[in-house]
# Entry
Amino acid sequence: MIELIKVNKHFGSNHVLKDIDLQVPTGQKLVIIGPSGSGKSTLIRCMNMLEKPSSGRVIIDGVELTAHKAPVAQVRQSVAMVFQQFNLYPHKTVLENLTLAPVVVQGVAKEAAEESGRAFLERVGLSDKADAYPAQLSGGQQQRVAIARALNMHPKVLLFDEPTSALDPEMIQEVLDVIIGLAAEGITMVVVTHEMGFAREAADRVIFIDEGLILEDGTPQHFFEDAQHERTKLFLSKILR
Amino acid sequence: MGSSFTQWVENLGLMFSEAKWSSLFQHFDLVWKGLGYTIVAALAGLVLALVLGIVFGVLSASRNRVAQAVARIYVEFFQNTPLMLQVVFLGFGLPIIWPQFNVVPVLMVGIIGVGIYHGAYISEAVRAGIQSISKGQLEASLSQGMSYVQAMRYVVIPQALTVVLPPLTNQAVNLIKNTSVLLYIGAAELMYVSKSIQATYYNPGPVYLVAMGLYFCLCFPLAFLARKLEERAEASAGSGQA
Amino acid sequence: MTNAANATIGFMLSRGWFWTSLLEGLKLTLYISGVSILIAFVFGIVVGVMRYSRVPVISWIATAYIEFIRNIPLVLLMLFCFLVFQLKDVTAAIFALSIFTTAVIAEVVRGGLNSIPKGQWEAARSQGMSYLQILRHIVLPQAVTKMIPPIVSQFVTAIKDSSFALLLGVVELTARSNILKGLFPAVGQILTIYAVIAAMYFVINFAISVVARALQKRLSAGRGSIGQ
# Structure
């Protein structure tokens, strides 16, 4: 479903991603962990071309996004992203946040979009907030709305860029529970996170990235019990105190 | 020295005598007409300035180097040269160079001058407004498959409007005041009417005092509105984000 | 009589008196705006501080002044000073421009003072400083950095607005265009006259803005004001 081939990314003189090769099969739940500055955010943002690789290829569901004149906007309809800063549209109600893109981009009829939107709001436990504005919601609620917004595009891939890093501690679990619930279904997911408990519980595969290189790649069990690379072990020892 | 000062005060008093006031009020219909033209010129000029401001504002906020440069040139040129010079050029220089331009009525020439000048200031306000909307909003909309234009239209610009409204209202006030420049090219707005009444009846005191009052009535409510909008914009800043 | 040789741009630009005429105009422009700026800077700060005063009468007078002046056209103010106060042309222009710019700078000062967090006042007051001492040692130094860009942009505006003086008969830089285009009526020459005058304003104003930006960077470097 997702293929990154020899992807490099430079920010000025900073070589952030170094020759990344990564393949994510359909239906896999991939968790990416790593220290700050490791390039993990850049990596996931290359998957929907919010960052353009300096070199290399990005292929989603057979379509090469890095090719000349690639239909990036079209592919983005099936690759939904949930951001660390939520990025809800403050001038729209919760329901409007969910229906804007389906109506404007996918050409879905407003009623149909609202209907499926309400279903997803129910799914994340916020059906009573459909007509509220984002500013009236707590951080955890806003992020759950962001997830419902992503789902209402009926995507093939879900990308989560540190979805709980900006939340107060007591709201982290409500968001993680939603994501874990999604993981039980067949959709392809890539999650960048610091939440080790979540990785252990929901991931099929965990990769560790540091200084632009993927140093460790395996099942959660392998990762937490049998990590090979020195830096992985160092990182884990700091996190899992 | 003391006597010339008292003479000055005396002269000042004479300027506001009964006769001077009545000669103004006898011809007050002219003043209303002038005020009407001022309002027309201000509204039309504002429309032109808004159109130019939005176009060049969006251009200067874009990531396209050429668009940025074009907008930059427009803004820097019209912000660093006097409105008077621009109006003098349009009213006196251009008709010589391009005789067909003489067809354009003087009020329209003034509207063009004032519109282009304030368009530059409005475009800076629009640019600041667009850039004040966090990058995350653009990213969220693009990540949902919207085109740049769709993202601008549905997400960024509606939010930018709240930020842009106060400076825009301030520019409207400045525009109203600047229509007074049109007197120099012969447009029959309030300033021109005031000057011609004053030149005929030698009553600058009452005439200009009344003119001040009229401009104040036009401008002050708008300035007050601008301040209210400013407070509102500050209050609602930063919602919907972590 | 215009023959082909006299109608070229090169001909015009090579006439010494073309440039002297412009320079005379520029001198008047800079004189009018320069004097006005100096006066307005001093009085603008005074009125701005008055506006911020806790004594209602003082604050009210300053507010009335600012609100009135800012809502009438500068053109009208100049004509008023010229015809009603019966001042000489250049004096009237300077007077009006000073009054106008003072009001604007007063608002900038008020905005700058407002931007200093209340905590600064409280800390200083708790140490026993008087109102004026606080202004002088704590608040104004911090506010100055914020006030520089709008004040500079007002200088630029003053230079541009000095062109309104031509309505009073002052032959400043913009007015020179009327004279020169009579002497050099060819199309190319006329365009060049306006272009040269525009360029002169542009260069001066642009240079001032650049210097101000550099000055602001220098002043705020390493200082780090609170509430930035």
The two ends of chain A are 35 Å apart (CA to CA). The longest helix of chain A spans residues 169-183. The interface with chain B takes residues 48, 50, 73-77, 79-81, 83-91, 100-101, 104-106, 133-135, 139, 142, 149, 153, 166-167 of chain A (CB under 8 Å).
